[in-house]
Design a protein that fits this description.
- It is a single chain.
- By secondary structure, the chain is α+β, with helices and mostly antiparallel strands.
- It folds into 2 domains: about 1-30; about 35-220, Immunoglobulin-like (Sandwich), CATH 2.60.40.770.
- It is about 20% helix and about 30% strand.
- The protein has helices at about 1-25, 75-85, 240-260; strands at about 30-40, 40-45, 85-90, 100-110, 120-130, 135-145, 150-155, 160, 170-180, 185-195, 200-205, 215.
- The strands form 2 sheets. Strands 3, 6, 7, 8, 10, 11 and 12 form a 7-stranded antiparallel beta sheet that branches.
- The chain is elongated, with a radius of gyration of 34 Å.
Length: about 260
């Protein structure tokens, strides 16, 4: 009985150690991603926003202004530290119980397949997030993963969503620079309330098939096969064709000279 207990304990310790090592390898992988944000067909700047948090309420008239705001300027670095460098399990997002926010629809665009192998190094996700409130400041976290383990690749700026407005979509364009071998990746997008830091909505490959098995690779895995063409140029010089012809004539002359000298006069 004791030997069986020891065996089970050793097996459990071995499994836990293997899991810890696997997690450490995934979190220590060097990942470099460059991202840009767009809204209303233009680059998005979070310092120009719309309303204040005091305007949150039930759905009604949406009032938009161009007043400057320092939305989340001092919290972006804190959020990046919170999400980057950690492996997220898909089950952590499926526990969202908030029914006041939802992601109505999302669209994926693939770009930059330099070596034409079917795997792209740049992609963009455009999504329409809705809420029961007039307007709420939110931010998004974008992940890429395989087999339910996700790496955060971008934490967005804060932006407002306006009720069920279909024109307030937000776009994140990401270029994978390094750290992603060619594979079919799953995309996970989480939406957070910028005031409470609560996870309020998400979408993934189970919710939207377009986010599953997306063929991607980082730029350092893109390569092109270039044909090398060698051009040989002929040019005049010491051993040009004329020089060689003259040498041949001289050699023939030397051969004929003794014969000419022996002929009777």
């Amino acid at each position: 009985m004791k030997s069986l207990l020891y065996s089970l304990t050793a097996l459990a310790f071995s499994s836990a150690t293997s899991l810890a090592l696997a997690t450490e390898q995934q979190t220590s992988r060097d990942i470099l991603v460059k991202s840009n944000e767009f809204r209303y067909d233009a680059p998005y700047h979070s310092d120009v926003n719309t309303v204040t948090s005091a305007s949150r309420g039930s759905v009604g008239a949406v009032i938009k202004s161009g007043a400057p705001s320092n939305l989340g300027s001092d919290r972006s670095s804190e959020r990046e530290q919170r999400y980057f460098g950690k492996v997220k399990n898909a089950a952590e997002s499926t526990t969202v119980l908030n029914n006041e926010f939802w992601i109505y629809e999302s669209w994926i665009t693939l770009e930059n397949d330099i070596d034409y192998d079917g795997y792209h190094s740049t992609f963009s996700i455009e999504f329409d997030a809705d809420t029961i409130f007039n307007q709420v400041p939110v931010y998004a976290v974008l992940y890429l993963g395989v087999n339910g383990a996700y790496d955060a690749i971008h934490v967005s700026s804060e932006f407002y969503i306006y009720g069920e407005d279909s024109t307030d979509t937000f776009t994140i364009e990401s270029t994978l620079v390094s750290g992603f071998p060619p594979n079919d990746y799953d995309i996970l997008l989480e939406l957070y309330d910028a005031e409470t830091e609560e996870l309020v909505a998400f979408t993934d490959g189970y919710d939207d098939g377009a986010l599953a098995f997306v063929p991607l690779e980082s730029e350092n895995n893109e390569y092109t096969v270039e044909e090398t063409v060698v051009i040989v140029e002929e040019h005049g010089g010491t051993w040009s064709a004329v020089s060689l012809f003259c040498l041949v004539l001289v050699a023939i002359g030397k051969k004929l000279k003794p014969l000419i000298a022996k002929q009777p006069r």
